[in-house]
Design a protein that fits this description.
The complex is a heterodimer of chains A (116) and B (140). Chain A is 36% helix and 16% strand. Chain A is an alpha/beta fold. Chain A has one domain: HprK N-terminal domain-like (Udp-n-acetylmuramoylalanyl-d-glutamate--2,6- Diaminopimelate Ligase, Chain: A, domain 1). A five-stranded mixed beta sheet of chain A has the order 1-5-4-3-2, with helices on both faces. In chain A, α4 links the parallel β4 and β5. Helices cover 34% and strands 29% of the residues of chain B. Chain B has five helices and five strands; from the N terminus they run βααββαααββ. In chain B, α1 packs antiparallel against α2 and α2 packs antiparallel against α5. The chains are: A alpha/beta (116), B alpha+beta (140). At the A-B interface, α2 and α3 of A face α1, α2 and α5 of B.
Chain lengths: 116, 140
């Protein structure tokens, strides 16, 4: 799925990395606990979260993710966006809640891992 | 690669916001050295977890990374309170992190277990009231 499609499905506002929206992603995960993302996630390209602090961006970078989606209309800070841009990440925000946002993407074919 | 390459970082313990800066810098260094993405990811996760731990529990410390031709060594050292029960600390889900840290998305008790999972060797040397040194090795 192109990241452009992710943004469309979630009616999301793209905060940075708009030039990367044509790139494909094949997997996603949703969590507000970065500890769990670091411990359990493998090869997920999109992180959906309601947590807003710079560690979210650093966690995504460490895990080689491509895109962060902030749910529940949470807004990333300018500092977070600068960090994301520097690392080549797409950041978007949606008014949808976590459950719905994950469900919409899952139903359209964005699954847990590329192997599935 | 001939001589080992060394990288030193001071980890600021006063500011949780900046935690992870050393790991991010190291990740860029490893990319420039042409290390494989899977190895880089394992080193990044282990070092980042360690860096977060130093900021949460120990008021910061130092991180020294040495890149050899066959392995990457990460040495994390702090002068924090030490780890009271290392067996408990190595157990998944055990955490002594305060509530405010959990609200920031950390403190799930996965740090040390995850560091062990992502490295080929992990040695913890800790003394109460003195500090903790963690030496991790990832084979290339």
């Amino acid at each position: 799925m192109k990241m452009k499609r992710v943004a469309e499905l979630l009616a999301a506002e793209v905060c940075c990395g708009a030039e990367l929206l044509e790139s494909e992603v094949h997997s996603a995960c949703g969590s507000d606990m970065m500890s769990d993302v670091l411990a359990y996630v493998k090869d997920q390209a999109v992180l959906l979260t309601g947590l807003v602090n710079p560690q979210v961006v650093r966690t995504a970078v460490m895990m080689d993710m491509r895109c962060i989606v902030f749910v529940r209309s949470k807004a990333p800070t300018p500092e977070m966006l600068a960090l994301a841009e520097d690392s080549g990440l797409v950041v978007m925000k949606t008014s949808k809640r976590m459950y719905e946002a994950c469900g919409v993407l899952y139903a359209d074919g964005l699954r847990l891992s590329e192997a599935n | 690669m001939g001589e080992p390459l060394t990288f030193h970082f001071d980890v600021d313990g006063d500011n949780f916001t900046s935690a992870g800066e050393a790991s991010l810098s190291m990740k860029k260094n490893l990319r420039q050295l042409g290390i494989s993405p899977e190895i880089i990811r394992r080193v990044s996760i282990a070092m980042y977890e360690g860096e977060i731990n130093m900021v949460i529990h120990a008021g910061g410390g130092t991180a020294d990374v040495t890149v050899h031709s066959d392995r990457i060594e990460i040495l994390l050292a702090d002068r924090g309170p030490g780890i009271e029960n290392i067996d408990l600390a190595m157990r998944e889900g055990f955490s002594t992190a305060p509530e405010n840290i959990r609200n920031l998305g950390f403190g799930a008790g996965m740090g040390l277990p995850n560091m062990k999972k992502n490295t080929d060797s992990l040695v913890v040397d800790t003394a109460l009231g003195v500090g903790t040194t963690i030496r991790m090795t990832v084979l290339i």
